[in-house]
Amino acid sequence: MKEVVEKLSLLVAEFTKDANAQVENGNKAAGTRARKASLEIEKLTKEFRKASLEDSKK
After folding, report:
1. What are the C-alpha distances in Å from 12 to residues 23, 38, 53, 56?
2. Element (H, E) at 44
3. pLDDT at 1 exceeding the cut of 90
4. Sign of torsion, CA 11 12 17 21?
5. What is the pTM of this model?
6. Is the Cβ–Cβ distance between 17 and 31 less than 8 Å?
7. DSSP secondary structure of 14-33
8. How far is 7 from 40, CA to CA, in rounded Å?
């Protein structure tokens, strides 16, 4: 579960950087990268939820 949290932290940082570049500078490529990162974040949050539920059952 620790690995998932670390990956999430990195992806959120990437997403934030790219999303800000799109909003502030109108960088379309950064918007594409931000959308891709958001999909990966969604997958990892689901993975975290599963792992968290398993740990709570122990």
Report:
1. 16, 8, 22, 25
2. helix 28-57
3. no
4. positive
5. 0.85
6. no
7. HHHHHHHHHHHH--HHHHHH
8. 10
- CB burial string 16-32: b at 16+ within 10 A, e below: eebbebbeeeeeeebee
H/E element, 12: helix 2-25
Identify the CA nearest to 41 among candidates 4, 2, 18.
4
Of 49, 41, 33, 51, nearest in space to 11 by CA: 41
Kindly report, residue by residue over 7-58, the tens digit of the pLDDT: 999 999 999 999 999 999 999 999 999 999 999 999 999 999 999 999 998 7
